[in-house]
Structure formats: structure tokens, C-alpha cells
Amino acid sequence: MMTTTQQPSTKEDILQYLLKQGLATAQELAEVLDISPQAIRRHLKDLEAEELIRHKAVQAGMGRPQHQYELTHKGKDFFPNQYDDFAVSLLGTLAETMGEDQMTSILRKQWERKAIHYRDRLGNQPLSERVAGLVKLRQAEGYMAEVHRVEPEGSNSGDCFLLTEHNCAISTVAESFPSVCGHELEMFEAILPDCTVERTYWMIDGEHRCGYLITLQSSKVRSVL
User: Fold this and answer.
1) Is 42 left (phi over 0), alpha (psi -120 to 50) or beta?
2) Residue 171: phi, psi to the nearest 5?
3) Distance CA 206, CA 174 (A)
4) CB 176, CB 184: distance < 8 Å
5) DSSP labels for 42-82?
6) How far apart are CA 194 and CA 188, in angstroms?
7) Where does the chain show beta strands of DSSP type E?
8) Is 163 a residue whose pLDDT tops 90?
9) pLDDT tens across 203-216, in order?
């Protein structure tokens, strides 16, 4: 949590914007948050001193390099995170004791149970209501999730939504065991059996967010877990 007490809401707005966008200049932040460039630079200086953000120089044309700001690991930890190093240690012990294959089976079973829980909560509503409900469930678990309707590709596709998660509530686990992300994709497919679910962004690949393209397919028949 931030130690500074000066205008914490503005500083939190800066952190949230950087979490969503990945990078931003001081000028961009000033415009988005509607405060003066001088004030935004004071906030940025404070946040850098607290090691919540860092900057890097990026050459833009023939002018002077621009400073672009991004979150540090400490800055990302400012946001809710339900899992800690104990989970990684426990999974490591399981892998050593039971073997990778059995541990993978255990992880898959966990995601299957969570998928059933989600399905029970979301019911058989229209897709727009199900994805909105899914976002609320993910937010309650510590994910900074949001969803937007997008234009589908292809004439055979129905409704299409992009589910974005700007942080990962299990990032510590995912860094050590990337296979959990594969099970997460399988979980979304099980929750939405009448849809095609594709991963479009992945933090493990260096992106600053995870994204899933959810497309309703009229040819798919609902199945029961």
C-alpha cells in the first residue's frame, strides 16, 4: 500500500491508468486525469520514490527523448492479489512428490470445479449478461477485469466480446507454473460452451494484460459439465 498521504486518489488514478495502458507519458496522464503537467510530475516523482513506477526514455522523432512511465512489480502488487509465495511453494512440493503429470491433473480438476461454480452462477442468460456476470465474479476475486463488445470476424459468427484482465490474481503462481494459464483458458471454454474462446493477450508473453476473445457460435450446442 502507498505510504504517501498527499492526494492518494490521484496517485491511485495514475497507478490504475498505467495498469490498464502499460505505458504513459506525463503529458498523457495530465490530459487523461485533467490536472496540470506540473502537478502530475510531482505525483510521478513521489511514486518513483516509493518504487511503485519507473520511467524509460523513448526517442520520438528528432526531438528530445520522452519519459514513459510504467508500473514496477511493487506497483502491480498494490492491486489485490489473493495468492502468495506459499501457493508456489505448495505446488513445487506437489510437483516433487507426485510428479508433473499428477500435479497437472490436480490443477485441471481445480479449474473444472471453478468452471462448474461459475456456470451455476451465470446460468443460461444471453451471452452479454453472462460475460458481464463473469466480469463481476472475476473482480470479486481480485482481477481488474472488464469486457467490451467488438465486431465479430466472419459471417457465421454471432455476438463477440473482448474480456480483458489488467492484473492477475494468481500472477505469482502463473510465473512459476505457466500451465495454470492454459487451464484458465479451458475454464472459460467450459463456462461458455456455445462460444469460441481465444487468448489474444498474455502476461506470460510480456503483455501488460491478458485478453480473451469470446465469440458466440450458432453452430455450437450447449453442453453440461
Assistant:
1) alpha
2) -60, -40
3) 13
4) no
5) HHHHHHHHTTSEEEEEE--TTSPPEEEEEE-HHHHTTS---
6) 11
7) 24-25, 53-58, 66-71, 145-149, 157-165, 195-201, 210-217
8) yes
9) 767 777 889 999 99
Q: What are the structural domains of the chain? A: 8-76 (1.10.10.10), 85-217 (3.30.1380.20)
**CB neighbour burial string for 32-43, b if at least 16 within 10 angstroms, e if fewer:** eeebeeeebeeb
Instruction: Quote the pTM value.
Output: 0.60
The secondary structure of residue 151, as a DSSP letter, is: P
Cell of 171: 500472477
**Nearest 5 degrees, angle CA 190-CA 169-CA 47?**
150
Is the distance from CB of 167 to CB of 223 less than 8 angstroms? no
In the sheet that holds 24-25, the strands lie side by side as: 24-25, 66-71, 53-58
pLDDT exceeds cutoff 60 at 99: yes
Contact 25, 14 (CB under 8 A): no
Res 224 pLDDT > 50: no
Q: What's the CA dihedral at 46, 81, 184, 24 to 10 degrees?
A: -10
CB 51 within 8 A of CB 74: yes
